[in-house]
Amino acid sequence: MRTGLVERARDGDDVAFAALVDLDGDQCYAIAYRILRDVERAQDAVQQAFLLAWRELPRLRDPERFSPWLHRLLVNACYEEHRRHRRWISRIRALPVDGPASADPTVSVDDRDTLDRAFLRLTPQHRAVFVLHHYAGLDLAEIADVVGVPVGTVKSRLHHATRSLRAAITADSQVDSTEARPA
Amino acid sequence: MNQPRDPDTIIATWLDDGPIDLPDETRRAISVGLRTQPRARRVAILGGSSMSPINRIAAAAAILLAVGGLSVFVLSNRGGGGAGATPAPSTSAAPSATPIPSPSPSIAPSPSATPPSTVGWLTFTSSHYGYTIAYPPTWAATQATRDWVSATDPLASPGPGGVSDVFLGNPPNGPETGVFGFAADVPAGTSEDAWLASYYAGRNYCPTMPTFVPITVDGHPGKLDPCYDAQAFVFVGNRVYVFVIFRTEMQPLFRAFLSTVKLPASSPPGSLAPSVSPS
Is B102 inside any structural domain? Predict the structure, then answer.
């Protein structure tokens, strides 16, 4: 069904394209949010990705490759949002990252804050690989295809990102246990 | 009383949290935006439906002729040219990694690639696997914390787990790459080929079973898989030592790493205990 929609959208059928937005929009948004950690910028990135997809779709040779192609547009849109945000944030300090509060007791507010800060210290390239692998479930070869780098680079970025987050949460735990220890 | 916390669980839960539904306002904005977006022209391509089969064949033939002509031109101008000029070797089957850094036959795609000097590198002794290896001083080294287990770690995973000694280049002071090292027991009666087949069984990129290039590491014969992430395997007694570098184009650097490796003496059969005093 998706391939048929892609072919129709490629030929200019905006109803078919809207159906593709319905099918893929949620996942794209979820990925963009997790890369950018910001609701509004994630919305902007998704919008940019889909509009670019509509514009460039006639050049997509293989409709079967729509999904990785769209993911690539999305990741690039996230990179662009990140660049814009950095220019903006250099003049004004942003409020804490928004998004719904978690009801999951596994992650405390402190954990969340620690991970948010550690994650935002990563480059968007590292974040994208981490999210595509651990959230979107793409394997390394698929990620390499999406972000346009060798599998080895994907592995390297994944390792960097994972190690940074683990180190952050581990260090935070050690501080907690030290503080909790009776004098 | 504090309960032990699993960082990976916390990270996974944190990652799962957050919005998953694209807001309607964004959908509407996309829908409105479509009407104002100019569209690219559809490109006439070999696989496209806008060309007749005859035209596709003609176009393919023209491209092949052009590529062939260009190849002849390039090859004839390489290395002094002439009909006897040989193409650049892609890989050499000669040994590449020796204990003493020295010019050695290339296993890298480019014949001009030479391994970097290892002078000034720091020595790392694997407390878990027993070998020593040198690494550039600007890199970060991390010890493995547990054994590699074939059932759960089918490939040297870069993710959580600590199964490998890890050496990471630190951009901008070094390349964005990493080297892993780990070792495993080879079960009695298992051939090298069988072990490797098992190791690669879960691989989902490159050929499932690569074409290995022979190498020598610390005087021991080994095998190099040059695909994507170059991997070197050295079987010593009942152990196999595995070294991996991210990015196959880093093979000269990998060769430099391998040239510094000192493997421990053979472990007793069936032993999982790491040697902590490499010779």
Answer: no
Share of chain A above pLDDT 70, in %: 81
Same domain, A29 and A82: yes
Q: Looking at beta carbons, which residues of chain A come within 8 Å of B168?
A: 156, 159-160
Say if B204 falls within a structural domain: yes
Q: pLDDT, tens digit, for every residue of B203-224?
A: 655 566 788 999 999 999 999 9
| Interchain CB distance below 8 Å, A57 and B39 | yes
The reply to whether B170 and B243 lie within a common domain is yes
Residues with Cβ within 8 Å of B257's Cβ and at least 6 positions away in sequence, in order, are B133, B134, B135, B167, B179, B243, B245
Task: State phi, psi for B157 to the nearest 5 degrees.
Answer: -70, 135
Question: Same domain for A55 and A117?
Answer: no
> Phi and psi dihedrals of B236, rounded to 5?
-130, 115
- Is residue B12 one of the residues assigned to a domain? no
Task: With a cut of 90, say whether residue A34 has pLDDT above it.
Answer: yes
Give the span between the Cα atoms of A51 and A59, in whole angstroms: 14
For residue B8, the chain A residue with the least C-alpha distance is A166
Q: Do B39 and A166 touch (CB under 8 A)?
A: no
- Average pLDDT (B128-157) is 81
> Of residues A129 and A108, which shows the higher confidence score?
A129
Query: B157 vs A84, which has greater pLDDT?
Result: A84
**Residue A21: its pLDDT value, please?**
93
Both A54 and A105 in a single domain?
A: no
A40: closest chain B residue by CA = B26
**A84 and A3, same domain (yes or no):** yes
Q: Do A152 and B11 touch (CB under 8 A)?
A: no
C-beta atoms surrounding A135 within 10 Å: 18
- Residue B242 sits in a domain whose CATH number is 3.40.1000.10
Confidence of residue B165 (pLDDT cuts 50, 70, 90): confident
How many domains does one find in chain B?
2
Task: Match 């000029």 to its residue by tokens.
Answer: B85
Chain A / chain B CB contacts < 8 angstroms = 178
**B193 lies in the same domain as B251:** yes
Contact criterion met (CB < 8 Å) for B247 and A150:
yes
Domain count, chain A: 2
Do residues A59 and A123 share a domain?
no
Phi, psi of B166 (to 5 degrees): -125, 135
Question: Using DSSP, how many helices (H) and how many strands (E) does chain A show?
Answer: 8, 0
User: What tens digit of pLDDT does each residue of B58-84 get?
Assistant: 444 544 444 444 444 433 333 333 222
* pTM for the structure as a whole: 0.49
